[in-house]
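Blinded run. Sample ID left blank on purpose so nobody reads anything into the name before looking at the predicted structure. Input follows.
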Amino acid sequence: MQFDSIDRNLLSLIQDAADLSRAELGRRVGLTGPAVQERLRKLEEQGVIVGRHGRLDPRALGFGMLGFVLVKTDPKATERAGETLGEIPGVQEIHHVAGEDCFLVKVRAADPEAMGRLIRHRFHAIPSVRSTRTTIVLQTLKESLGLPVAGGESDEPDVHTP
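Blinded prediction complete.
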């Protein structure tokens, strides 16, 4: 897909502050509110914008512990295991990975005990799960859903290969 500088600026702005009004977005990119609305609609139709979500503080909601769980499953039931993992409350992300393990799962829980119960009683209750290895996060230095969309020259190497 090709994006002009206005599209890239809009995408960058809504990543940082999805609650900006169409009028404010227009002011920042030099368009009217309706013109911004039309561009955003097209970006949604193209699948570039996949949703608008409020970001919540997990600690404020009682999910202060973050862990990453590597899950090894029976190769014959990997797809179903992934679907079942996705139904577990507290599971935020599931990535099917290459290598010794099958999935890398991002999990939030209240505390170490809750994390242990979640893994023992929910992950290991899935018949095709053979083993898990859990890494507990001590401190998050950066967490972002943002993607580099601003065009132009950069000193950074281009890691995006369409």
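Unblinding after everyone has recorded impressions. The radius of gyration is 20 Å.
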